[in-house]
Amino acid sequence: MGLIGRGKVYMVTLLTLFSASGNARLEANEEQALSKLLDSLSDSYAFTVDTVSPSTETPMFRLGMELFFSKSLSGNQDVACASCHHPYLAGGDSLSLPVGESPYNDNWVGPGRWHDWQRSADPKADGTPNVARHSQTTFNASLYSRSMFYDGRIFVLDPTLRSHGEDQRHRTPDSNLWQGDSSAGRDLLATQVRFPVISTDEMRGHTFAADSTNDGVRHALIERLKQSENVQQWLQLFRQAFASPTGSSNSLITFANIETAISYYQSTQILLDAPWFDYVNGKTNALTASQKRGAKLFLTSPDKGGAGCINCHTPPIFTDEKFHNIAAVQIGRGKQPNGEDFGRRGVTQQDKDRYGFRTPSLLNVTATAPYTHAGAFTDLDAIIAHHLAPDESVSQFDFSFANNPQLKHVAGLLSDSKQHTQGALAQLNREQAAGSSLLPDGLTLTVTQIDDLKAFLASLTDPCITDRACMAKWVPDSNAPAPDEHRLVAEFRGHMPPPQPVAINLEPTHTSLPNQAPGPALPAAFLSDDAFGCSHSAPTHQSLAKHHSRHQSAKRFDEVAVSAGLAHKHHINWENYSLSSAQRLIFSGGLAAGDIDGDCWPDLFFATGDATADVLYKNERNGTFSDVSKVWGLTSVELSNGAAMVDIDGDGDLDLFTSNLLQPELPSVTGQKMQLPDSQLPTLYLNDAQQKLHVAADIGLQVQLTSWSFAFADVNKDGTVDMLTNHWRGPGLGGEQPTHLWRNISSSEGIWFEGLDTEAGLTDLVGNADFTFTANFTDINNDGWLDLLFAADFETSQVYKNLRDGTFAKETHTHEISDQNGMGAAVADYDNDGYLDWFVSSIWDPNGKPEGSWGVSGNRLYHNHQGRLEDATTQAGVAEGLWAWGACFADFNNDGWLDLFHVNGFDLPPQLSRHLGNPLAYRRLKQAMAEFENTPSRLFISNQDGTFTERSRQWGITDTFSGRGVVCMDYDRDGDVDIVVSNHEQRPVLYANRHNDDASNNYLSITLRDSTQNTRALGAKVHVTTGNTTQLQEVRAGGGFLSGAPSTLHFGLGDASQADTITIEWPDKTGSVSTFHNIPANQFLYIQADRGTIEQRSPSPPPQSQ
């Protein structure tokens, strides 16, 4: 027994020795293979990080740390940088999505931190996390050299690679004209400090400095800090940090110094004492065999048996700092108005960047979950599985978030996540099919290989990051005095439900209400020119139409602005152009037309900029205009932008609105009247007895910074005229989300508007920023109620359905909306099918390669197919319009089919070269915009089959000015539609239409009047039938880019000698209808609703003979 027993022991010992020897050989083989692999990659990659962590024992570190932990840098003083980036939470917050301003408790950090949505002024607040993207760790952030943030919205423009992007040009959200930010910090860390404090969701809040630019917010924070009771404590820290013992608060407490201090503090957050770096520095036993196998998988391409992770996660910090789409699950409020997040696409506006997010560094990756830009994956297994099989991962993803300890409590408010993720997945599938994705397709790993890969990832983690004692040096000592009472003293609670119930998901039910049936017949007076009291053409002047010979029969337009007396020039003082303001200023220059003096002849108003007072021209009824600005009281100067005429007070004559742009030294005319030196409120000029304009006082419009185009209609059918405003903000402006829909609640005490966006359901109109340019009221689905269309930049155009109860439902996703840079708009039934269509002007780049952050696909024409807008651009042939702005539909040849005109241009006068800072900025910009300079407008003539042919040159549209606003109207009342264009930094253009000189086609001009406060019957529909064709037009005011045309409707009748039927659907609650039969052609008609109080008008006297 003993011999047998000893034999067993001996055999076991031999087996153990053999096993140990085999393991040693295996490990030696793993080591040899990995060493060989690293040698082969050493020419392409660095494996060690060459950096030195600055000292944490300096006054600068102390100041930076106190600022990083100070809630004083937030608008509501309730959130600090460390609230979402706490060292004890690995420099993040351990949440999928962060909670910024207005938490339930200022000191709650990480799991258990929730948004106090009922206390917050955030219009989108509902109890879900209020920040759109996951909090990335700040540790090792200083190792990035090309970009910051998930979308890289701060990035280095210079091609040369420098550590930290130091002393290079940084493009930021404050950059204008696609140039570097002149206020950027010395390195990327310093530059990124500038932006969390101005984010409404993160730190600024929704009430602090709400009407300020981004720089204004920073300035307000500094001023508040300097005026606080604790300024001396702060000043002492600044003096010590900047070695200025006697420095004043004005010289030391600046935002530039705050950038320096916080970025210094963050630059000390270097954690690289990880096993991997020990290994590459020669300590071969620093990695386990599993970690070495995992390293091989990570660093080897798929075609050689590896996982190919190195394709994007390149050593030494395991990121290529580029942007890739991995179809990451989309969660939360996102950046787009509908809640999607396009990632890098939102910065570059290039389709190849859609859903692309910056490759994160994998240093300390095991401690920085959850993963991806929305924190969708809570552990390494899930994110690795997603990389291996995105389709399967998305299909199996639990969108109830039952296993997400944070989001499971608010899953009912995240119902769009699955739909939004499908867009990213479809994009990835296209990229993989085209071979442009670096994500391996069809890669399979065994369970053991995945375990090895996770083991390798663990070797990238510095143990310090999970050791509170080790991390404590980056947290203020609670026993040390704080500079003020706003230091964050973090409380860590663990995951739990929100303290109070969240909002109920009020998704519209989209119950189908019947379309408004034809209403009762409404008597209407059918008036001629004389009966309506119109003045005739001046007896002593021949019409200019007769002065011009009918040479070149194909030519239809003559440019007559100068001879017609339109002598002014749009101009903004050159010193007001700067790299921070030029972009929005270059976009400006509007006009409005309407019969302001009551003689039935359309007059013209031009917004002229800030060099002179705006200009009002009276139509002299002989083809010319005279400047009556001073006589009518237009003497004050403002930085005017857009304009529209509308009878806003219901007294029968036209009033005038102007929109304004930010000009720090010049308030709007309304601001001047109200003695508000920083006000850019739109200006309302009220018409006094059709003889003079006076400035209205405050009318309730809480609009600041910028306003663009107007639109007017009675949207709720209460008989008064409501309003839409647009507020493209652009780089550097920031500010609280402005209101767009305004209800007219005027009374005998005065004119007053109240904002309706929240009440009406428009809080999701804009995403991360407001890019609305041109809005329209129009009845898309023919239910008798006006819907809302918003043409907006950067893929944010929107469609809202009127639910007939004072609210609207966003239905953009049910339509085919695809414009990339929506700017101007026009609404009309271009194919005579009885539904109103929508044209949106955009940017068509001839070479297909954007030199800046704009799209290339061009204009969009949305054909209305029984209430659904479908992209008919390609079929219609109207995409190629270059850099398009204002537009109009009009029947220029009176054939009964609407044609389409739009202006374009992006000219850069040489005077700008002295005002854009670095002289190279102008040169670079000039080169980038060369293809959009000196380009003629576009004239698309209808082929009467839903398609168009561009005929601008053949029809005499030849000017190459930089057009902005457009009005199409019959200014000389000769029966054809003329074109007026306002140009940026140039004189206007007036194209007189000579088509009717030949009298080859017939027409009708129709003007409506109503006895309600909506005197122009805005929103009414007029149907004109000749033979088998019925044309539909809608009465509107405003609705063009920076412009508004008269509310008179012009119908071409072709060779028909009469209109068989005219049917009017009045804009009242009953849907009243008036019908007329057999109306002779070639006349100006005035149709007035007879509601028992017919408007009385006195004829205007003819002008005196000269």
Report on this structure.
The protein is α+β, with helices and mostly antiparallel strands and 1106 residues long. It has a five-stranded mixed sheet, with no helix packed on it. A five-stranded antiparallel sheet has the order 19-18-17-16-38. Helix 1 (2-41) runs parallel beside helix 11 (289-299), helix 2 packs across helix 7 and helix 13 (380-388) crosses helix 14. The radius of gyration is 33 Å and the shape is elongated.
Layout of secondary structure:
Layout: H1 2-41, H2 59-68, H3 81-84, E1 147-148, E2 154-156, E3 170-171, H4 188-192, H5 200-204, H6 214-226, H7 231-241, H8 249-252, H9 255-267, H10 275-280, H11 289-299, E4 323-324, H12 345-348, E5 357-358, H13 380-388, H14 390-396, H15 417-434, H16 447-458, H17 468-471, E6 524-527, H18 529-532, H19 544-547, E7 557-559, H20 582-586, E8 591-594, E9 603-606, E10 615-619, E11 625-627, E12 640-646, E13 655-660, H21 669-673, E14 683-688, E15 692-695, E16 710-713, E17 722-725, E18 741-744, E19 753-755, H22 757-760, E20 772-778, E21 787-792, E22 798-802, E23 808-810, E24 825-828, E25 837-840, E26 860-865, E27 868-871, H23 873-876, E28 884-890, E29 899-904, H24 919-928, E30 938-942, E31 948-950, E32 963-969, E33 978-983, E34 989-993, E35 1002-1009, E36 1021-1026, E37 1029-1034, E38 1037-1038, E39 1043-1044, E40 1049-1054, E41 1058-1065, E42 1073-1080, E43 1083-1089
Parallel strand pairs: 8-39, 35-43
Antiparallel strand pairs: 1-2, 2-3, 4-5, 6-43, 7-34, 8-9, 9-10, 10-11, 12-13, 13-14, 14-15, 16-17, 16-38, 17-18, 18-19, 20-21, 21-22, 22-23, 24-25, 25-26, 26-27, 28-29, 29-30, 30-31, 32-33, 33-34, 35-40, 36-37, 36-41, 41-42
